[in-house]
Write a sequence for this structure.
């Protein structure tokens, strides 16, 4: 005699639906390890040096209209070079180095089987407000950078303005990069956020929390 509990029609339908959903679900990407807060002061500069990040110390400008820049460095690149140097806090430079290693290069290898060699960016520190507001941007404290695109080994260029809505590997690469950034930065804004970000991905370290993919 069998004591197996019979499956009711309703439960059976639910079980089949769950199995179908599981079969159709996209392959999950392993989560990144927890991101520690950026080191500060001399410890941050020492860590940048130990990682081999190319940087120069920057004299901190006097605060103007609320803008200020503390523990500032001028960075020529992290793992991949920047198309032009960018001035930012040491903490942001460390976080960008983690981002380049754990997100950008991993996505490039997955989609194109090659590495990113250059990162195109519109700048980091800039004494200005958030567009359309009277509130200072994270750029005003050197805690933000705008990424315009990437060049991979062999000369392949992937630009946010041209490729964000691409249905192929270019678009998937950019969306994966932005999704990974959301796990490492406090604010991530893409072309889906508004027209002001149609040609770049904005990354910053706070103080707000927003991920707009």
């Amino acid at each position: 005699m069998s004591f197996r509990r019979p499956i009711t029609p309703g439960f059976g339908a639910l079980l089949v639906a769950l199995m179908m959903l599981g079969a159709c679900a996209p392959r999950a990407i392993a989560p990144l390890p927890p991101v520690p807060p950026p080191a500060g002061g001399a410890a941050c500069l020492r860590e940048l040096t130990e990682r081999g990040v190319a940087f120069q110390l920057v004299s901190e400008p006097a605060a103007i209209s609320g803008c200020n820049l503390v523990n500032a460095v001028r960075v020529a690149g992290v793992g991949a070079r920047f198309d032009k140097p960018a001035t930012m806090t040491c903490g942001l430079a460390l976080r960008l180095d983690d981002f380049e290693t754990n997100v950008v290069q991993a996505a490039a290898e997955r989609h194109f089987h090659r590495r990113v060699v250059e990162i195109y960016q519109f700048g980091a520190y800039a004494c200005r407000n958030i567009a359309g507001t009277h509130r200072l941007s994270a750029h005003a404290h050197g805690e933000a950078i705008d990424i315009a695109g990437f060049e991979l080994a062999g000369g392949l260029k992937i630009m946010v303005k041209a490729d964000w809505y691409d249905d192929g590997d270019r678009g998937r690469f950019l969306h994966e990069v932005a999704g990974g950034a959301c796990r490492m930065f406090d604010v991530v804004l893409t072309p889906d956020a508004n027209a002001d970000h149609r040609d770049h991905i904005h990354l910053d370290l706070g103080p707000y929390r927003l991920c707009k993919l």
